[in-house]
What we know:
CATH topology: Arc Repressor Mutant, subunit A
Shape: globular
CATH architecture: Orthogonal Bundle
Number of domains: 1
Radius of gyration: 12 Å
Oligomer: single chain
CATH class: Mainly Alpha
Number of strands: 3
Strand content: 15-25%
Number of helices: 5
Order of helices and strands: HHEHHEEH
Amino acid sequence: MESEKLLKILKAVANENRIMILKFLRENKELAVGDLAEMAKLPFRTVSRDLFVLRKANLVQSRNHYSERLYSIDVPNFPEEFLNFFES
């Protein structure tokens, strides 16, 4: 893995909230921002901002489902070495 990409990933996961979000996504496969906020007991805005950072690092992906945006781990872009860390 190139060092620039690794640095971007490490910066994105260097936050307790983002690690928690990734663990919830690993366990549940796909969740909306509101569900993640409720599970993490964090404000909607905080979770939304953290998901933006994770998307920029290509660690999560989103898709629209009716009026919600659902997030999941972007498995093809997620480093295999990190996947085991986020398992329950």
